Amino acid sequence: MTVKKKMIRLLCLALLLCLLCGCGAKEQPAAMNKTCAELTDLAAASAAFQELADANAKYLAKHLMVDADTLEDWCLRMDNTRATSEMICILKVKPEADQKKVREALEDYRAEQAAIYRDYAPAEAAKLEKARVLENGAYLALIVSPDADKTAAALGAGWK
Fold it and tell me: If you average pLDDT over residues 57-71, what whole number do you get?
């Protein structure tokens, strides 16, 4: 075998090894190591929210139409007085659950609340209309904030 053929074979082998290394297991994003409560704290610190209090699983099921049994982890904090529409809801959906259905429930809740607030508190309705359901892997978030852009950026940084 000539030196040229050996070099070509070695280069092909090196290329193959490089390609195989690129197919290895990927590291999970940092958000996968954070709890929903930690992500909620990040979002809450990003804007001047009213005082938020934790809601229970009963509220989650009755008003947001999300069964806590479909979630691996969750945190729901909202203005206890309901004078404002402000809330932070971060959910981590179980792998076997229907994430699309949970997302739709959050979107429906946001739309319903916007319609309710539109009649008697237009400023609160505007907050709800700016709010979006955010998604990152198994995580879903609905944040109704005094500053939607800042809160979304803070959550995005927390997900990295």
Answer: 93
Identity (one letter) of the amino acid at 8?
I
Which among 59, 60, 90 has a CA at the least distance from the CA of 75?
90
Vertex 88 angle, CA 85 and 90, to 5°? 145
By the 8 A CB rule, do 72 and 92 touch?
A: yes
128/109 Cα distance (integer angstroms): 10
Burial track 26-40 (b if 16+ CB lie within 10 A, e otherwise): eeeeebeebebeebb
- Residue 25 burial (CB < 10 Å; 0-12/13-18/19+)? exposed
Q: Tell me if residue 56 falls in helix, strand or coil.
A: coil
Longest dimension (CA), the chain: 86
Among candidates 149, 148, 132, which has minimal Cα distance to 140? 132
pTM of the model: 0.77
Report the DSSP beta bridge partners of residue 77. 54, 88
Residues 6+ apart with CB under 8 A from 97: 70, 71
Q: How much is the mean pLDDT over the chain?
A: 84
Q: List beta partners, residue 93.
A: 71
Strands 133-136, 87-93: pairing is unpaired
Cα of 18 vs its chain's centroid, Å: 34
Q: Tokens 């319609």 appear where?
A: 115
